[in-house]
């Protein structure tokens, strides 16, 4: 098996070709064609969530595929929009929901929502990238984490945002050699520990991000060797990384169903 850093490099050094390979997969191509041909016909939130294929495609594009079943929850987020700082989407700690509502801003743009770049071509681009990362994770979760961090790094404003995203936090803790159990520590203390080791401004510099990810993939490889004889068997039983739903989120959804 190829080690984590090499696998990451093979994908990231020519990301356009990597995405082209993903787009050529029959299922991805079919779903993307359906989305491309039909999203412009959607004029309301009800039509959007009512078309299962369109809605699931959009949710996966934003990293929310595991929440596609929670339609009432997503309708509430979409109806509230993001212009009001106290709207439902803005109140959620997971910024993926705000990003989703920002893309499909029916509350602001109404019937014109699906005529803009973000809900159309932009969402297709996100879907392809999301699929690329998921496919990489099937072979090596460390590669998926590295690709995810690469995509998100430029938009990170502070370490509280890092800690709010389990995947980003896992990358940073691993790269710095901190135990994952550190996640249970006081948030402010974790932020201070990160600040002592990293300048957050470095994440705006692609070259420094690559250096950081080289450190991460090296540390990941030490903790999760690609060459372990039983690695192929162990991978069949491994649990995926927690990118998704918090206990608080599940509680909110359950309350909405009552």
How is this structure best summarized?
With 258 residues, this protein is mainly alpha-helical.
Describe the structure.
This protein has helices spanning 4-12, 15-23, 26-38, 45-50, 52-61, 71-80, 88-91, 95-103, 106-109, 118-139, 141-152, 159-164, 166-175, 187-197, 206-223, 231-237, 247-257. With 258 residues, it is mainly α. α2 (15-23) crosses α10 (118-139), α3 packs antiparallel against α10 and α5 (52-61) packs across α10. The longest helix is centred in the middle third of the chain and has 22 residues, at 118-139. The radius of gyration is 19 Å and the shape is globular. The termini are far apart.
Instruction: Give the terminus-to-terminus CA distance.
Output: 49 Å
Mean pLDDT reading: 90
Shape: globular
- Number of helical stretches of at least 4 residues: 17
The biggest beta sheet reads: none
Unreliable spans? 231-242
Structural class: mainly alpha
Count of strand segments: 0
Rg, Å, rounded: 19 Å
Helix content: 55-70%
In what range is the share of β-strand residues?
A: under 5%
SSE order, one letter for each helix or strand: HHHHHHHHHHHHHHHHH
Q: What key attributes describe this structure?
A:
258 residues; 66% helix; globular; 17 helices; mainly alpha
Question: What does the secondary structure layout of this molecule look like, with pairings?
Answer:
Blueprint: H1 4-12, H2 15-23, H3 26-38, H4 45-50, H5 52-61, H6 71-80, H7 88-91, H8 95-103, H9 106-109, H10 118-139, H11 141-152, H12 159-164, H13 166-175, H14 187-197, H15 206-223, H16 231-237, H17 247-257
Helix pairs in contact: 1-11, 2-10, 3-10, 5-10, 10-11, 11-13, 11-15, 13-15
């Amino acid at each position: 098996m190829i080690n984590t850093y090499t696998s990451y490099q093979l994908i990231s050094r020519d990301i356009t070709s990597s995405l082209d390979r993903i787009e050529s997969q029959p299922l991805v191509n079919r779903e993307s064609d359906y989305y491309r041909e039909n999203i412009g016909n959607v004029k309301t939130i009800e039509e959007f969530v009512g078309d299962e294929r369109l809605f699931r495609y959009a949710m996966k594009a934003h990293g929310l595929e595991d929440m596609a079943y929670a339609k009432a929850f997503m309708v509430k987020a979409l109806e509230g929009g993001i212009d009001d700082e106290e709207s439902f989407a803005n109140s959620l700690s997971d910024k993926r929901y705000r990003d989703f509502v920002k893309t499909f801003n029916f509350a602001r743009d109404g019937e014109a929502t699906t005529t803009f770049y973000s809900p159309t071509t932009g969402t297709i681009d996100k879907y392809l990238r999301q699929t690329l990362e998921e496919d990489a994770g099937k072979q090596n979760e460390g590669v998926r984490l590295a690709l995810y961090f690469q995509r998100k790094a430029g938009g990170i404003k502070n370490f509280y945002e890092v800690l709010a995203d389990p995947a980003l936090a896992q990358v940073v803790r691993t790269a710095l050699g901190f135990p994952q159990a550190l996640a249970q520590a006081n948030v402010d203390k974790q932020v201070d520990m990160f600040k002592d080791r990293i300048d957050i401004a470095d994440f705006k510099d692609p070259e420094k991000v690559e250096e950081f990810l080289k450190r991460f993939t090296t540390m990941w490889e030490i903790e999760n060797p690609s060459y372990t004889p039983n690695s192929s068997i162990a991978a069949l039983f491994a649990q995926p990384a927690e990118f998704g739903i918090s206990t608080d989120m599940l509680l909110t959804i359950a309350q909405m169903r009552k």
